[in-house]
Amino acid sequence: MKRSAAFTLIELLVVITLIAVLAGLILTAVGNMRKVSEREAGASQLRQVGIAIGAYVAENDGFMPGPMWPGQIPVYDSGEPGEQGKGRLAYHLAPYLGIDDPAVGDDIDILIPPAFREWSEANPSVNLPRTYVLNFLVESNGEIINPWGSLVADPPTEPKLRATVPGNAWAMTDADQQNPRVASAPWRTSTPEDIIHGDNRLALTFSGSVQRIEADELAVP
Fold first, then answer.
1. pTM exceeding 0.70
2. Dist. CA 201–CA 203, nearest whole Å
3. Residue 99 CB-density burial (10 A; 0-12 exposed, 13-18 middle, 19+ buried)
4. In what helix (H) or strand (E) does residue 120 lie, and over which residues does it extend?
5. CA angle 42-46-51, nearest 5°?
6. Cα separations in angstroms, 1 against 6, 115, 116
7. What is the pLDDT of residues 60-78, one digit of tens each?
8. Nearest CA-CA partner of 207 in 54, 84, 57
């Protein structure tokens, strides 16, 4: 008697289970690879921002750009008629990022981390989303300084000489609602609920290097 070549029910269930497990592993691996790719692209963008800040400092008597807003909107504004747009990195750094003739309202792509775009597309109703938060509280020689100057202060304060700022201090980092420098800000809801790069945020230091940064390093001194 010939034996049937068909699968038994148990064999079929085993095959389906194996396919489901393999599919899950593949999807997880693809998701992890995408996150790594987004993180690397975000780090590359931050390095370019660091180079642009260095070029600005070199052409402005050693001073940091500013005064600034702490939460950075990646949109160009001419600053006219008021100071609103002048508190954005987009305004100060456009010439140093190869953006020769930006129009008011233009997105400055290099100030938008790739991982941020996914959140932004899923939350189109968010008003004026902030991609980065600047470090307004840096310890330098036993005192706390604001390297960028502040438009939040009344009256506004002016930016500091880059040479007075410790190079290993973080200058800007990913903005999200869990970030200690964002958690109490009035614009916190204009940022992602969670860290966009998974376990750690990316940070640009004042020396121009990029590194992952832990939450305790973002605590208010």
1. yes
2. 7
3. middle
4. helix 114-122
5. 150
6. 15, 62, 65
7. 999 999 999 999 999 998 7
8. 54
